Every structure is written in structure tokens, then in C-alpha cells.
TrEMBL record:
Name of this chain's protein: O-antigen/teichoic acid export membrane protein
CC per GO annotation: plasma membrane
CDD domains: MATE_tuaB_like
Transmembrane stretches, start-end: 12-33, 45-68, 80-100, 120-138, 150-169, 225-246, 290-316, 322-345, 357-375, 381-407, 419-439, 445-467
Pfam families: Polysacc_synt_3 (PF13440)
Chief location bin: membrane
Membrane topology per record: Multi-pass membrane protein
Subcellular location(s) of the protein: Cell membrane
Organism: Deinococcus budaensis
Homology family: Belongs to the polysaccharide synthase family.
Amino acid sequence: MTELRDKTVRALKWSYLGFFVNLVFTPLSTALLSRLLTPGEFGVVAIASVLATFGAVVTELGVANALVQRRDLTPEHIRAAFTSSLVLGVVLTAVMWWAAPLVGNYTGNPDVVPVFRGFAATYVVASLALVSTSLLRRELRFKPLMAAEVGGYVIGHGVLGIGAAYLGFGAMSLVISAGASWAIQLAVSYAYVRHPFALTFRLAPYRDLYSFGVRASVLRLLEFFSGNMAVFVIARVFDAAALGLYRRAFDVAGMPVMRLSGGLLRVLVPSFSALQDQPGRLRRAYGSSLLALSSVLFTFSAGLFVCAPEIVRVLLGERFLAAVPIVQAFALYVPFPILANVAAIVAEATAKLDIKIALQVAQMLFLAAAFWVVTRLGLGVVAFAWVLVAGAVLNSLAYVGVAARILPGSGRESLRAYGLGLTAGLGVGAVLFAVVAGLRAAGTGVFVLFGLELVVGGLLVALVVFLGPDTELRRYALRVWQPAAARLAAWRAQGHT
């Protein structure tokens, strides 16, 4: 178990590093792209990329999760996973290419067609990378995974995507960046895991993978439709510019935190899977993970809500000002699906996917009914965001019950984690609001104010981490800080001699 803990800590370290690198580059690329592309072009990309993601989910057919979760994995399983993902990638590319005009008719926007086809063309590259990235996750080798993701983001999205937008490629520039990002991830991950590019058509390994993978795919499809239902409705009811505002607001509010939490959750899947036969240890790991994430997520949420006007002005520009209330809604949304995912990973690691499927169906029904009401009342896109907030809160509470059912006694730990997180968020929000309100009243320039918000917010987050509950995140932060503090003290001492 010591070896597993050490691997998990190293994986968390690389996840944190990847997050902070992305935290530097994401605002820069967001600010540049928002000044090179219009809200309407972002709306075209939103509907095309969401539908393309649907194909990617089908292409995977759950084999990625099966490769991570399965106890005994043979070379034949790996070949079966590669065959499945490649064949489905080719088939789905052809199907989505043919279906692109239907999407254009649904949205009433012919500009969607070439962009949708461009995203569909990335399926094959993504399918080639699936096995190697899944094997790295299984082995908790997150250093190459983070190198692949960061390299793909910086080169694919940063250099090629922004360069294409500057050259006038419009919405297609994001297709170019997505394709380049997948190609870089494939090259880096395969350099570390050289599994054979070999096909197999024996039925036995497919049965082993799909016994778990098919249910995982059904679950991912349900999650896809729940998470993107608002996009489908907005694309039908409103114009591309309104959809562009909605998606950019979600990206600004959720992307940094989602990247951090996504990295952490990828670490937790193999770690929790390794403890699936040890409920006591799994319960402790679940409680510690939930507590660490809750304290950080609600703190970020409060900061995003208070600073939304400056975030939109600096990162998106004046033509996206209508996105401010949407950003504030999504700021409150972000913590809940991520915290629910911690409990969902417990269900996945113990192969209890039926519970997850039932909850996803319930969430879909709630969202469908709520969006119908919003549409009938003629409300704007801000209302769609608040519906997602309500759905996320209810789903998160339901998953507290799921964790308590799988791990008896964890319900109290879950409520404690949520309570401490909410308390930290409210405290940080109150302090930050008092500081920011005074600076706004004093007429501080937007860029100066944004910089001060980053500094004050960063200090408050650090206080929450260092002074908060004892979790793996706090222990890791202390291990990093103590040598740095010692070197700083030595440097200051030398300066006085």
C-alpha cells in the first residue's frame, strides 16, 4: 500500500504542475482568441465541438475506463481495445461527415457544417491515442500524461490555434488546434507506452472489456447529453452569438478549475480501483479527497463570482460583457459536479455503475423538464445556466447518498467536507468582495484591479490550503513550502552579513 500511496502522491504532483502551467497559458490564449473571433464564431464552434465530442464518446465505447479499472490486463485486451477504438473512430468519422448537413439544418446555420466535419476528422487521431493514455493512467504515470496535455495545449491551442485565428481561419482555427493537440498527445503518450498497433478479432477479450465498458459508455453518453442539453436547446432557440456567449462564459468560469479537478479525478480512478477490495482504506481515501477538493473548489467559486466583471473585461473583452451574469452562475455551478464525481469514482472503482446510470437518467429528466419550462417562459440564456446550477446541486447531494451506501459511515464525512468547503468559500468571498468593492469605488483601472484580484485571491486560497483541514493537498503544499521557506531564510540571512 505504501507503493500505491507514493505513486498517487507523485501523480498528484504532476497533476498540480500541469494545472499551474495551464493556469498561466489558458487566460492568455482565452484573451487573444476572444479578440480574434466573434461571439457568433464561438457559437458555431460550440455546437460543432459538442456534437464531435459525442462521436468521441462512442468511439471510446468505455474501453478506456475498462483498461484502467480491470484487475488483470493481458496483451490481448490491449489489442482488443486498440482494434475497437480504431474501427469505431473510422466509422464515426464517416457517419458524422455525412450527418454534418443535418446539423446545419437543425441550427439554421450552414457555417456549422465544415467546422463539424473538421472536428469529426479528429476522431481517428484521438482513437489512436486512447490506449496509450489509458495505460499511463492505469500505471499512475502522470508525468508523460501531463507533458502530452500541456504540450498539446501550448503548441496546439496556443501557437497553431491562435496563429490560425490571426490569419483569418475563423472558427476553423479551433479545429486546427484540436487536431494538433490530439496529434501531440498521441506522439508523447506512445513514446512512453509502445503497445503494438495490432488488431485482434477474438471475442474473449472483447467480452472482458465490454462487460464493464459498455455500461461505462452508456453512462458517458448519459453524462454527455446531460452536460450538453443546454447547448442543443440554445442552438435551436437562439442565434449563434447567444450560444457563443454561453459557451465562453462556461469556459472562463469552469476551465481552470475543471483542468485541476480533471487531473485529480484521473488520479483517483486508478487509485480507488486499486482499493476496491479494501472498503476501510477506500473510505479514508474518499473522505480525504472530497475534503481537499471541497475546500479549494468553493474558494475558487467565490472568487470567480465576485470578480466576474473584471474577468470578462480582461479575458474576453468589452463585446462579451453580456456574459458577466452567466459567468457568475457558472462560478456557483463548478464545485458541485466535480465533488459528485468523487463519489461517482467510488461507484466506478467498485464496478457499481447501475447506480450512476440511474442518477444520470434522473438528472437528464430534471434538466429536460426545466429547460422546457425556461423555453416556454421565453427566458434568456442566463436562466439556462441557473438551471444547470440547480441540477448540479441536487445531483451532488444524491451522490452523497451513493457514497454512504457503498461505504457505510461516509455520509457524515461527506457532509463535513461540503460544510467546511462552503464555509471557506463564504469567508473568502466576503473578504474579497470587501476589498474589490473598495477598489471599484476608488475608480481603479480594470487591468490593475484584475491583477490585484489575482494577488488577493491567491493569498486567500493559500491560507485555505495551509490553514485548512489536514488533507493530502495540505501535506503536499507544506512539503513544497518548507524547503522554499528555508532557502528564503538562508538568503535573507546572507544578505545581512
